[in-house]
Hints:
Blueprint: E1 2-6, H1 13-25, E2 30-33, H2 44-56, E3 60-61, H3 65-70, H4 79-89, H5 94-102, E4 106-109, E5 112-115, H6 131-139, E6 145-148, E7 155-159, E8 165-168, E9 176-177, E10 183-187, E11 201-207, E12 212-218, H7 222-231, H8 236-240
Parallel strand pairs: 1-2, 2-3, 5-6, 6-10
Antiparallel strand pairs: 1-11, 4-5, 7-8, 7-10, 9-12, 11-12
Amino acid sequence: xxxxxxxxIHGNRQAFEACLKVARARAAERFILLGDFVGYGADPExxxxxxxxxxxxxxxxxxxxxxxxxxxxTESMNNDAQxxxxxxxxxxxxxxxxxxxxxxxxxxxxxxxxxHAEASSPKRWHYVRSTADAARSLIATPSHVTFCxxxxxxxLYSMSVTAKMTSFVPKTDVPVQLLRGRQxxxxxxxxxxxxxxxxxxxxxxxxxxxxxxxxxxxPYDIASAANKIRENGLPPWLAxxxxxxx
Length: 246
């Protein structure tokens, strides 16, 4: 089965629509959503409604820290992120907020694990930024492949049976064979707010039979997404950063 895995959509309708279109054109059979549906972007209602529809048709979804923040005041965020979350609360209806609140922290599916942050303590929202971070996550699960987001920068880590770690930044559209003799941690880039210097939206395709993973980048209408952020009175930096990929 070919999985399309998305993370950190952040209310960016234009980016999510573009990624879904490409994933379907490339014959993705199942969708995986790794959280942070809201925050930063100006279309949280559309994104959550789309996620709800995908889940109703068999998609897997987990909760991100911005999704958590919609329903609690205990999440600590920077000023721009907090302003966006408070604005988002006023846009979502009860059913949409309930959907976000009811999302699981992680999902195990065969020899795969899906989580927003890292797997050893999902609710602490640790970032995977180094091999040490990745090792902590991999040790916490027997899964062959763990998929996570949260960082907004693509990366791929692996750990051998002797706990030797490797890491690299995968190249766009170049399949990588996830060998069975190692555990793997695939850190997705962001659909709605990439931060690796490439402003194009990011998602992953994974073939469960061949165990090949392909990181994909998708151009989208950044100007429209940015203009809608500005029109809704959200912090200007949330719009400006989209074209910069940071």
